[in-house]
Amino acid sequence: MTQSVQFGIDRLIADPKLLERLSGKRVALIAHPASVTKDLTHSLDALIAAGVNVTSAFGPQHGLKGDKQDNMVETEDETDPQYGIPIFSLYGEVRRPTGQMMSSADVFLFDLQDLGCRIYTFVTTLLYLLEEAAKHDKEVWVLDRPNPAGRPVEGTLLVPGHESFVGAAPMPMRHGLTMGEMGHWFIEHFGLEVAYDVVAMKGWEPDGEGHGWPASRIWINPSPNAASVNMARAYAGTVMIEGATLSEGRGTTRPLEVLFGAPDVDAKAVLHEMHKLAPDWLSGCSIRECWFEPTFHKHVGKLCNALMIHAEGPHYDHDAFKPWRLQALAFKAIRRLYPAYPIWRGKDFKYEYTDDVLAIDVINGGPSLREWVENAGAMPDDLDAAASADEAAWVQTVRGHLLY
Question: Per-residue pLDDT averaged across 170-183, rounded?
Answer without folding.
Answer: 98
